[in-house]
């Protein structure tokens, strides 16, 4: 125990933490108890990504789950494996190639900020189609109410990954409407200046200002630069979209607080940039 405490203290000093990883046997027993042999064998648990981050599957690789993501050239990490993955582009607004009423769970993390409103609504409707009755979908995406608070407070430290030389207006823009930023080099039209950005919130409602910025983003650019954020989400907006997709039992959650026990395993889920994230669950 003394050695464990020393290791934990050392890791904490360097900004890391020591966590117990559930054994495969423990996890398998939980899945079998909750969902049965057939669903576990058929991997009827789906992660849905938009080609934006880390590797194929959004950095989640679980033996009982099937990854749905864009088959694109990843610089590093796991790539599409046709024997176990599903290649699908959410921007195409085409049906997800999964049987109706067959999925037990759907987890989509760091995804919907990479697609348009139209593609997101279509995706949510498709998730409702493929889920079994009582199935759970969990959506994790940046919460722009936190960005807006930081912007109003001139809290540049919120954008800890950005160089300190970048103005907070551009940091905010890059986090939800990257193509509209004056710093984005992939757009032929001039980006939104710092002054123009501030004036938007003085002359428009919050939603109108945000939508004006995302309207400057282009799908054709996004297909080539998938890591860009081109959409914004708040608890109200995400709840409204899920309702429009047919879900009724919707709840704002928090990291590690899923209603589904298997989704509370933070070795796989809810473990990336959680201080910036919005967590919402819906039940079919």
Care to describe what's here?
With 284 residues, the protein is of the alpha/beta class. The chain folds into two domains: 2-142 and 233-283, Rossmann fold (3-Layer(aba) Sandwich); 144-224, no CATH class. Helices cover 34% and strands 14% of the residues. It has ten helices and seven strands. The longest helix is centred in the middle third of the chain and has 14 residues, at 117-130. It is globular, with a radius of gyration of 20 Å. The model has no long low-confidence stretch (mean pLDDT 93).
Question: Helix/strand/pairing class, anyone?
Answer: alpha/beta
Shape: globular
Assembly of the depicted chains: single chain
Radius of gyration: 20 Å
Order of helices and strands: HHHEEEEHEHHHHHHEE
Q: What's the end-to-end separation, in Å?
A: 45 Å
- Look at the structure and give the mean pLDDT: 93
Strand proportion, as a percent range, falls in 5-15%
| Largest sheet descriptor | 7 strands, mixed
Strand neighbour order, sheet with most strands: 3-2-1-4-5-7-6
Number of strands: 7
The CATH topology of the largest domain is what? Rossmann fold
CATH class identity of the largest domain: Alpha Beta
| Helical stretch tally | 10
Residues in helix, %: 25-40%
Under the CATH scheme, which architecture of the largest domain would be assigned? 3-Layer(aba) Sandwich
Number of discrete domains: 2
Pick out the low-confidence regions: none
């Amino acid at each position: 125990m003394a050695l464990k405490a020393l290791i934990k203290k050392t890791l904490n000093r360097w900004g890391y933490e020591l966590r117990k990883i559930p054994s495969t046997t423990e996890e398998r027993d939980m899945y079998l108890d909750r969902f049965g042999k057939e669903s576990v064998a058929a991997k009827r648990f789906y992660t849905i990504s938009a080609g934006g981050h880390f590797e194929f599957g959004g950095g989640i690789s679980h033996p009982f789950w099937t990854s749905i993501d864009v088959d694109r050239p990843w610089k590093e990490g796991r790539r599409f494996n046709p024997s176990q993955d599903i290649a699908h582009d959410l921007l195409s607004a085409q049906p997800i190639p999964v049987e109706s009423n067959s999925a037990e769970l759907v987890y989509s993390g760091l995804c919907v900020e990479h697609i348009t409103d139209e593609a997101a609504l279509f995706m949510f409707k498709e998730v409702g189609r493929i889920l079994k009755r009582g199935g759970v979908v969990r959506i994790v995406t940046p919460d722009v109410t936190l960005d807006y608070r930081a912007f109003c407070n001139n809290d540049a430290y919120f954008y800890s990954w950005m160089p300190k030389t970048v103005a907070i207006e551009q940091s905010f823009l890059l986090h939800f409407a990257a193509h509209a930023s004056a710093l984005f080099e992939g757009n032929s039209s001039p980006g939104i200046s710092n002054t123009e950005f501030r004036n938007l919130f003085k002359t428009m409602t919050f939603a109108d200002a945000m939508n004006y910025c995302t309207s400057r983003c282009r799908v054709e650019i996004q297909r080539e630069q998938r890591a860009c954020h081109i959409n914004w989400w708040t608890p109200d907006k995400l709840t409204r979209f899920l309702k429009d997709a047919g879900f009724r039992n919707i709840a704002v959650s928090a990291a590690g607080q899923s209603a589904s026990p298997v989704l509370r395993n933070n070795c796989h889920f809810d473990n990336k940039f959680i201080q910036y994230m919005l967590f919402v669950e819906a039940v079919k």
